[in-house]
């Protein structure tokens, strides 16, 4: 048996086998706390300033080499450099060395704690983010002071990066071509670590609780981003098995990648559009490379996060026009800002809600802040003159909200028209169906818009009552729950009855077990993470609508998730014998997560 097998949440698929290299170990427990002799105080203060300067010059060097995939994170490094230059933190720490005779690392710890105490009570996301940045910067200085800084020169070749947490700045420092995979203690499905790993196309696991106690630098580790496992020092036999699995996965990925530009057409000639979900405009290359036929969901809020100011119309328009032009004539669906819940922008402060997931988020937030909303609507409209652009509103709960949102859009159009600025007057407008209320009135909503896009991530959360980020209840997060399937069917039928198209852009669209059922329902398009597109297109190309409709009828007659799961599994193994190894790994992942 391997020394240890740890479990985590897979945020990017694939298998990496290599030596572990730790950065950002949580060194707080080992922070030396000593009183220095009065005669040594000046030297200790010098040491403190030297450590600040050294970290600052390291970050300045890093800033010069931000790779294209992580360009948006360059600003964060800039912020950290400014903090190191600001004498407030180093000055407060130097005072503790002078007045109490504390060693430099301890003095800095006290200076940071003072700031956390002073600002911790203020419930403002901007201040909270800045405090986290202060902590990141101080950690680096302390690591330098106690000789525990990440010695990147120690990373001679490619390695698997292990960390308590991983900031985008850390990744940039590491030279992305040397990273074979990631594993971290912190982070969830939607954390930066996951987004970065997917952008870089390497396997990654987050939420691996026991990582720091169980893995040492140089240990041979397997990151299994298919089954959600980290195997520490595997036996010969385990290693052989993983080498085989990795080789299989690589071969499988190569095979499906070769076919990914082919249309997603079933044996019996039904076409489904397979589009991509993106968070950053930089992901476009990956969309095209993986055979994405358009962008079915652009999560525009990411361009508002990780910064202290708000983007203005010019900045947004430039970004959006670039995206629309590069993708043209392919479709790009812009989703208007889905802020709130766990995604706050500093400039608006936090709302202090007891239950933010049910609070002022998404379209509700935009309707309450029309100035912000209109700037974005104008930018999207301007982009519509350069490509095949659609717009959709998230978290719609009723007809009135749609009408209000469309009224702001009409106003933005009127302004542009008066100003002589070009836009597409017929830009399609849709809504996301992600609340049970919207499902129940889908037939009314269908008459208000040009298309629907079903957001199953939230729809499952709000219908089964399970927080999508809470691992304690993740076993309840069931895409194949009879209620979920019935709701999707209801929405698809209502859309088609009204003669509009319906797409699905939640994670369900990248689940090979669910896709045949969606086909059976007659979904017009799906939108998923770019890396999953080749596999899903292959599934579609290997199936036929007749079987999918039969499967749908069978699952709709089932009363329990387990019965549906069994049926779906039988179907997968019957129709996709080549994929059995791949699917078995995915099933292990589901079991590990529950
Ligand atoms: C969804 O809710 O399914 C969805 C696609 O939106 P997001 O994951 O951005 O909330
Ligand atoms: Mg959603």
TrEMBL record:
Keyword RNA-binding carried by entry: no
Binding site for phosphoenolpyruvate: 299, 335, 457-458, 468
UniProt catalytic activity: L-histidyl-[protein] + phosphoenolpyruvate = N(pros)-phospho-L-histidyl-[protein] + pyruvate
A Pfam family that the UniProt record links to this protein: PEP-utilisers_N
Gene3D superfamilies in the record: Phosphoenolpyruvate-binding domains, Phosphohistidine domain, PtsI, HPr-binding domain
Cofactor: Mg(2+)
InterPro entries listed in its UniProt record: PEP-util_enz_mobile_dom, PEP-utilizing_PTS_enzyme, PEP_util_C, PEP_util_CS, Phosphohistidine_dom_sf, PTS_EI, PTS_EI-like, PTS_EIN
Assigned GO CC terms: cytoplasm
Domain (Phosphotransferase system enzyme I N-terminal) ranges: 7-130
Active-site annotation: 192, 505
Any one GO molecular-function label of the UniProt entry: kinase activity
Coiled coil: none
Recorded family membership: Belongs to the PEP-utilizing enzyme family.
Record NCBIfam families: PTS_I_fam
Protein name: Phosphoenolpyruvate-protein phosphotransferase
Natural source organism: Pseudodesulfovibrio piezophilus (strain DSM 21447 / JCM 15486 / C1TLV30)
Organismal lineage: Bacteria, Pseudomonadati, Thermodesulfobacteriota, Desulfovibrionia, Desulfovibrionales
Gene responsible for this protein: ptsI
């Amino acid at each position: 048996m391997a020394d240890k097998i740890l479990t985590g949440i897979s945020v990017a698929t694939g298998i990496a086998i290599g030596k572990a290299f730790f950065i950002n170990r949580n060194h707080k427990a080992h922070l030396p706390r000593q009183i220095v002799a009065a005669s040594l105080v000046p030297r200790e203060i010098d040491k403190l300033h030297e450590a600040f300067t050294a970290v600052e010059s390291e970050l300045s060097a890093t800033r010069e080499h931000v790779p294209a995939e992580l360009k948006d994170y360059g600003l964060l490094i800039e912020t950290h450099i400014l903090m190191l230059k600001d004498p407030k933190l180093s000055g407060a720490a130097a005072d503790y060395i002078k007045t109490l005779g504390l060693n430099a690392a301890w003095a800095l710890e006290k200076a940071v704690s003072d700031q956390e105490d002073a600002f911790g009570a203020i419930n403002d996301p901007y201040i909270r983010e800045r405090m986290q940045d202060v902590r990141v910067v101080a950690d680096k200085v302390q690591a330098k002071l106690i000789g525990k800084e990440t010695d990147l020169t120690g990373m001679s070749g490619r390695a698997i990066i292990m960390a308590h947490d991983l900031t985008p700045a850390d990744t940039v420092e590491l030279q992305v071509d040397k990273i074979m995979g990631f594993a971290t203690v912190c982070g969830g499905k939607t954390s930066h670590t996951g987004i970065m790993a997917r952008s870089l196309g390497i396997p990654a696991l987050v939420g691996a609780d026991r990582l720091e106690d169980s893995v040492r630098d140089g240990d041979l580790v397997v990151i299994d981003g298919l089954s959600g496992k980290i195997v520490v020092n595997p036996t010969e036999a385990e290693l052989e098995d993983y080498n085989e699995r990795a080789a299989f996965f690589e071969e499988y990925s190569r095979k499906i990648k070769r076919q990914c530009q082919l249309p997603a057409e079933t044996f019996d000639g039904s076409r489904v559009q397979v589009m991509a979900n993106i968070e950053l405009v930089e992901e476009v290359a990956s969309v095209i490379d993986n055979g994405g036929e358009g962008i079915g969901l652009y999560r525009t809020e990411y361009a508002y996060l990780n910064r202290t100011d708000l983007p203005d119309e010019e900045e947004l328009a430039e970004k959006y026009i670039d995206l629309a032009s590069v993708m043209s004539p392919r479709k790009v669906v812009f989703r208007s800002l889905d802020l709130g819940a766990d995604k706050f922008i500093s400039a608006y402060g936090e709302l202090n809600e007891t239950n933010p997931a049910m609070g002022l988020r998404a379209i509700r937030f935009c309707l309450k802040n029309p100035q912000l909303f209109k700037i974005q609507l104008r930018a999207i409209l301007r982009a519509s003159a350069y490509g095949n652009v659609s717009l959709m509103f998230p978290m719609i709960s009723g007809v009135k909200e749609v009408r209000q949102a469309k009224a702001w859009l009409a106003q933005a159009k009127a302004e542009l028209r008066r100003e002589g600025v070009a836009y597409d007057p017929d830009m399609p407008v849709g809504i996301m169906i992600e609340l049970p209320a919207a499902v129940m009135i889908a037939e009314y909503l269908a008459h208000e818009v040009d298309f629907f896009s079903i957001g199953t991530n939230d729809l499952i959360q709000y219908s089964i009552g399970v927080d999508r980020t809470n691992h304690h209840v993740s076993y309840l997060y069931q895409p194949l729950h009879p209620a979920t399937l019935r709701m999707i069917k209801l929405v698809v039928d209502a859309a088609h009855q009204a003669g509009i198209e319906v797409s699905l852009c939640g994670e369900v669209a990248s689940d090979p077990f669910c896709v045949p059922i969606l086909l059976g329902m007659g979904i017009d398009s799906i939108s998923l993470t770019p890396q999953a597109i080749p596999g899903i297109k292959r599934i579609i190309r290997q199936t036929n609508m007749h079987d999918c409709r039969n499967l749908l009828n069978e699952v709709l007659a089932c009363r329990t998730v387990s019965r549906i799961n069994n049926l779906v599994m039988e179907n997968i193994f019957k129709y996709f014998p080549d994929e059995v190894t791949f699917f078995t790994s995915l099933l292990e992942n589901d079991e590990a997560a529950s």
